[in-house]
Structures are given as structure tokens and as C-alpha cells.
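Dear all,

This email documents one entry for the complex benchmark we are building for the journal club exercise. For each entry we list the sequence lines for every component of the assembly. Then comes the predicted three-dimensional structure of the complex as a C-alpha cell string, followed by one or two observations. Please use this as the template for your own entries, and keep the labels exactly as they appear.
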Amino acid sequence: MSVAVIKYDGRMTRWQPDSRGRLSKAATELYLERGFSQTTVAQIAERAGVTERTFFRYFADKREVLFDGSSRLQELMADAVINAPATARPLDAVGAALDACGAVFVDLEYSQSRQAIIDSDPSLQERELIKRDRLVGAIVHALQARGVTEPTASLAAQTGIGIFHVAFATWLAEGTTRSYSEIARDLLTELRTVAAA
Amino acid sequence: MSVAVIKYDGRMTRWQPDSRGRLSKAATELYLERGFSQTTVAQIAERAGVTERTFFRYFADKREVLFDGSSRLQELMADAVINAPATARPLDAVGAALDACGAVFVDLEYSQSRQAIIDSDPSLQERELIKRDRLVGAIVHALQARGVTEPTASLAAQTGIGIFHVAFATWLAEGTTRSYSEIARDLLTELRTVAAA
DNA sequence: TGGCGGATGTCACAGACTGACATGACTCAC
DNA sequence: GTGAGTCATGTCAGTCTGTGACATCCGCCA
């Protein structure tokens, strides 16, 4: 399967570049075309022009392909919590983290098809859930660095990610009427009302 | 593998009764003895005196054994929400659901070892998370039956399950100083404070 | 020139799950 | 009591995921 190609500089190279990218693209396409569970790693690898083994070198499993950006999001939110003004109360700091995600959620169409894939398969939902849970963990950690103690930190983080989730889903459903960030802000306000009631 | 046994009434029966129970027990024991990922279904089946195929007739997969009671919990909580006084606000109804779980969380030692198994394996954590998510779904549904609209229902349910989780973890960690129900009540109060702040 | 490291391939395999069909004890209608 | 049907289980063959060990070959550097 050693495909010889011409590189930019004209020298021979043993394999096409960016296997990871091709694998990711091939996987997403196939999940969309035939469904996640109907897609085998062999098919993904074939479309990407590599072997199955190579797939598993880049992705821990078949599901992980769809959650590639999750560590970036995690850093983004944790940083936002840490860099929130010293005067900010826990839920305010979490609000800043919710806001920070806005930078990532821009391509609505991509987000929608990705979510459609996830919603179609329970095992992908499980994976999504654990990613969200890691987010909670990261925020708890960041809050603790601000001096917030338990159980307040956990409560605020849980609550924040709950809002994050509802906001994201609402954004996907609404289309372009409101941005993700607007929705998240509105929901946080709503929550304060519900909880205060 | 057809084990002939004497039944209570003395008649011959083809197999020992309660395969499901034996499988469940064998699995839990083995997960504890050698770790979840080091345990094969073949080993579980062997200890239970049945074939692998029989394991998969009772449990959808290796993980599901540990989440057998989850549908009962779901009904319990949904019923509590539905049967809460008509005057109860969303979070009060959710509080009733939290309280209702107290009936299930009695055997501390069992809950602790089960949780230790789950905490030791990411794939089990994923499963636990999706069960919790189903709980959220059930509560949302129950709240909507009470006339609570979105996004309030989702927010209240998410928040409630967040508390549920923290309360359960706290109960396992504290030992016997407070009952699960007490802890849950305290946390709900705490949350109202955090959110109102 | 020759050795080294990195990305990939090749191979062999264990283990999770599934579908199709077989078996034999029980049960119920007649 | 007999024959059909049902139920729990067994048997078997197979697909797919994921992993470990080792081979290959290119580009780089001394």
C-alpha cells in the first residue's frame, strides 16, 4: 500500500502527508453516509489510504475521531475561569468560561452534522458525556485554584456545564437567530431565577 | 455443559435456576478480584456455570451488569416528581425526587465496592454518565407533565441530577455520619445560596 | 557512508458481541 | 397421553475492535 507521491518540493516521499487529517475526514464522511455503527475502521482506513493499524495510532478508538477538539475546549474554559476578575463569584467565573466557548462554536453546519452523528448512536452519546464530565473536572480544578471550596466548586461547575449543554443544543436548533454566547448568557440569567425562586 | 441438578421438589431439571443472578454475582466478584478490564465474559460465564452466549442474553454488554437497578431508580425519581404537591416549584419537585432515592441507597458497603469498580475504568464511567443522563431525561419529562416548560425543566433537572451525584459521592465518602437524604437536602440548600449570590 | 528516528506496514491474536440453528424439558389443548 | 408449542439454554461460525511485536523504508545527521 506504499503510495508514492510528488511532494510540494518535487522530492519523492513514501506516503501522502497528513494521515491523521485524511482519517478524520474519511471517518466523518462515512459516519454521515452509512451511519456510525455501519462503518468499519477498515473502510475508514481504506478511504484514507492507510492501514487499520494507522487509524488506531492516531485515534484511541472509532469514537474518538469525533471528539478531537475537546481538549482545546477544556483549556479554553479552564483559562477563562482562572483569568476571571478576582472579584467574580464562582458562578460569574463559570459564566466567563461559557462565554469563552463562543470562539469555537462558529461553524454551525459542521456542528450540526457532527451532532447528528452523535445523537444517532448511544455509544457516541456516552463518549460525549464523558467529555462533558472532563470539562466539569477541569472547571472544578480551576475554581479551586481561585480559592473556591467544595462542594461549591462542584456545584458551580456542574451547573455551568449543564447550561453549556443546553445552550449548545439550543444554538444548533435555533439556527442563526442568536449566537451561542447570547444564548448561554440568557440561560445563566434564567437559572438564577429558577434557583432563587 | 448441561448440569443436571436436583430441584427443591426432587424433580430433575436441566439447568440450575437463576442464571441471571449467578451471572451478576460472578461478574461483580470477578471485577473486584481482578479488575474490570482483566475480566473476560468467558470467565464470568464459567463461574456462573453457563455459556458466554447466555451472558449476552441477559446483559447487553459487560458493563451493563453493574447498572441493573438503574431503571428502578429512574421510575422512582420520575414518580416522585409527578406526585409532588401541585404547589411545588420545579426545584422543589426535583428535591422530592432526590429524597425518593434514599430508599435505594441503603447498603453502603455494596455501593462503595460497586463505585470502586466503576471509578477504576473509563468505559464504566461513560456508562454511569449515560445512566445519569437518562435520569435527567426522565425528570425533564416528569416536570413537563407538571406543566413546567423549557428551558426551565431541563435546567432544573440537570441541576437536580448534579446534586444527586455530589450527594451520592459524599455519602460514599463520609461513611455513616449522614444519610444520603440528609446530604442531598443540605446540598440543595447550598445550591440555592450559590445561585442566589 | 552508515547509523538513527519516525511514520507506516504486516501479522497474529484475544476478546466482545451477533445471528442462526439445535436441544430438551416443561405445559397445555385435545 | 400425545403432539405442538414455548422457553431457556447450548453450539457454532463469524465479524469487528483493539493491541503487541516486529519489519520496512525514507530523510536526516554525524
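Observations: Strands of chain B lie at 5-6, 12-13. Chain B touches chain A at residues 89-91, 122, 125-127, 129-130, 132-133, 151-152, 154-156, 158-159, 162-163, 165-166, 170, 187, 190-192, 194-197 (CB under 8 Å).
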